[in-house]
Every structure is written in C-alpha cells, then in structure tokens.
Amino acid sequence: MKYAIYCGSSRGSDPVYATAAIDLAEQICRRDHSIVYGGASVGLMGCIADKVLQLGKGVIGVMPKALTDKELQHQGLTELLIVDDMFQRKAKMAQLADAYIAMPGGVGTLEEIFEVWTAGQLGIHQKACAFYNVDGYFDELIEFMTTMVKKGFMQPVYLQKLIVHDDPEQLLDAIAAYRAPKDKWQ
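-> structure tokens emitted (186 positions)
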C-alpha cells in the first residue's frame, strides 16, 4: 500500500510532531508499505521521508517546478516527479496513493486532504481519508465538522467514515479495514 502524506513544510512549535512523523514512518515500514508526498526535505515532510528512506522503503516526491527551490526538494528520494503546478501535484499524488493521511500542517495540508475527502464523497474514488491527530491537533476541526453534520451540510456517514486516530498503528489498521460508504448521489 502507498499512502499520500499531507503535512507541514515546517516542524511546528512542539517536537511531538516530528516524533509522531517518525512513529508513523516506522509503522508504515513495518507493514512493508511506502509513501508519496510533496517532495520537500524540510519540516514534517522531510522528517517522514527521511525515516521511511532510512528504513529502506519507497518514497515518491511530487513537486511543482515553482517550489523546487523554495521548498528545498529532497535529493535522496526513490523518485522525484517534477510537475507544472499545484493542481498537477495534487492529481498525481491522488492517483499514486491507495489511501490519504493528513498530519499536522497548515492550510495547504487541509486543502489537500479536503479535496480527496470530497472526491471520495462524490464517488470519484473509494480510498480511505485519515487524520493523524497528533496531540489533539485536529480536535477543533473535527468538532467543526460535527457542526456541519448537525446543521445539515454533511451527511453523518461521511464524518463517520473519516478515520481519526492519534496512534499510528491504530490509524493504519483502520485504513486497512476501511470500506467506502455509498457516494453522495446514490
């Protein structure tokens, strides 16, 4: 299995995030799986890529031309794909991945996971979408998504099928057991 990892190009303000990235990398490698991610050598992106590579598993980076210097592209990847823009990056990562995991990050991380989660709701794919909820990072976001359900803007099944765990082993177990709900229009 290949996981698309969406996460920060910074490490955040607490070392718990980098430690969690390493923990997730170790769990992925124990299962003999690999990752596809944004291709940077910095932040949580670089942290998880470095650990997966150190453990001998595959890492594919996908980076737009405009970011190759700004995000400090990783030089040691199994494969680095340079694409024209962010739209192609997201499409290529979505295509290559068997499941999607958001780790702590900024607005780009949220935009990427929300796009693939929406595509799943629409029946465009049947892949798991997950939040690695390190140290409660996504708690308030999940609470807001509960409000979306309560206010009638999202069907409960889509929130129930979203995988949220703070333990990397349980997160990957839930992804392995995932069964997609019916798409929105069925």
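The CA atoms of residues 147 and 153 lie 9 Å apart.
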